[in-house]
Fold Acyl-CoA reductase.
Amino acid sequence: MSALTQEKVIIAFNKLGKLLTNPTDILGNAFYTAESTNAWFTAENIKKSILSFAEMLNEADLAIWFKSVKLSTAPKKVGLILAGNIPLVGLHDVLSVLATGNIALIKLSSADDKLIKAVIAELFKIEPAFEDKIEYVERLKDFDAVIATGSNNSSRYFDYYFSKVPNIIRKNRNSVAVLDGSESFEDIQNLGNDIFDYFGLGCRNVSKIYFPKGYDIANFYEGIESFQPIINHFKYNNNYDYNKSIYLVNAAKHFDNGFLLLKEDERLTSPLAVLFYEEYEQLQALEEKLKNQSENIQCVISKSPLSLNTFGFGQSQHPKLWDYADNVNTIEFLNGLN
């Protein structure tokens, strides 16, 4: 088997991206098995995630990304503890390890143990040399470094257990949206994708929104009306009903359009089917506030002139290869292992 070169890796990733534009044809049984075993993994959401990776692995972006990638001459074993909150959420970490020529020891999430295997199997068909670079494990051992994604609770365990090796430990993060009142109906409609894609389960999903003082909430609700069918999903509906009943019993002030609850709250992390909000008077003061909370924020969605790294409305779930989780450069970390 011929040795992997960076050129071969780039070609293989690009071919994979093209294959993923037809997800149901390529992934076949894994697509439908994932849908039947995890109620959150609807066919629409699985397809959305796969197409996001297809979009990511385009020739131009791969060329840009690989300028920062060094192919290891002494491969390290990198343990990957993957999350399963949304379909294929751990695939970027796997591709990053492969891009740097290292070996991925993959601990899959039980919530997403079909799709990543199916995608990697397609990559093996494109470039068989990758088969020596992947190992699926039930328990990590004999590793040189670790990238682990989990909750705030599990991250404390990870910090302790993996403290003696180079590591990236990811915790809970949320995304926020900042409106200034000049948004069009289309802007708000696109923001609906940042809120509702994957039922709001991802760290790139908006869980908190900042309105300018005196903003008419009706404008927001009108803009997201097309997402009303989400309430037909039984697990989402259960969360909506539960949180609504809590607010009613406690006489907590909130807004309700029949599928999304809006509650004024300073916290960033809202329950499922709830969006927390705050009003602000000065954009500059809000900007400072967000900077101070940057360790808990994944994305800021806005068209306001902020000095923060922002995404346009509807773009939070369409990251580029270099939009790293928790703003920690995975490639830089992997390059540094050598």
About this structure: The chain has two domains: 6-171, 174-311. The chain has a mean pLDDT of 94.
